[in-house]
Design a protein that fits this description.
Strand order of the largest sheet: 3-4-5-6-7-8-9-10
CATH topology of one domain: TIM Barrel
Helix content: 25-40%
Order of helices and strands: EEEHEHEHEHEHEHEHHEHH
Number of strands: 10
Structural class: alpha/beta
Distance between the termini: 40 Å
Radius of gyration: 18 Å
CATH superfamily of one domain: NADP-dependent oxidoreductase domain
Strand content: 15-25%
Largest sheet: 8 strands, parallel
Number of helices: 10
Mean pLDDT: 95
Oligomer: single chain
Low-confidence stretches: none
CATH class of one domain: Alpha Beta
Length: 277
Amino acid sequence: MTASSLPRVAANGASIPPIGLGTWQLQGDVLAASIQAAADAGYRHFDTAPRYENEAGVGAALRASGLARDEYFLTTKVWHTELTADAFRRSAERSVQVLGVGPVDLLLIHWPNPAVPLAETIGALCQARRDGLARHIGVSNFSASRLDHAVALADEPLVANQCEHHPRLDQSALIAACRRHGIALVGYAPIGSGNLLDDPALATLAARHGKTPAQVVLRWHVQQGTVAIPRSSNPGRVAQNIDIADFALDAADMAAVSALARPDGRIFSPAWVETWE
């Protein structure tokens, strides 16, 4: 079985490949090599943002990858300091221009900004879709209550909420909120930024299935029906991360991975976040 046999995640009209390549902190030749390795291994989902300062490199690598534009799903975002209507529009237009591959497949609000009315930002997000800058739109780092508010304000369908998601961080309530609205949860740091891969429970599962701990965790994501966007600068590991179509976790395995959650499991909580509730 190949990466193409992994089930896509359907979300309000979008069809999202369940494993994507995250590109945060990847630059230059390393970025280009990771994207080429991903394309060769069967990835059809790539994630970037203006904040990563690599959109031009991502676009160039995708154009050089051998993939046709309609073969892959590309996400970018608008930073939390650019959420007034005019600034949002400028950011989205600039991203499309810099990427150089036409409209993006998914445009996200990167982080909420309580200093800007959410109605204004959601209005700009919806307008970006109507104007053809993005095929689909969504949010990122939104709590369940803020997601409910965003959905109520939107007059275009929201398809994704991209958030930190890995076994050490219990996101079951947020996943449930996403599902109520037909929205996909897209998990960044899906293997816990590498910090949980030495866990004995994962080592046991990996040995049983003849896979790596990272592959076990990524399979856990896929079987929950969520999307994961692991990042790696190692081309071999990039390929390994999507080689998860040939095994499955049973209910006990899934429960064992979920049991790794702990109260201090969150990795990313920047100063501008008021609350995760």
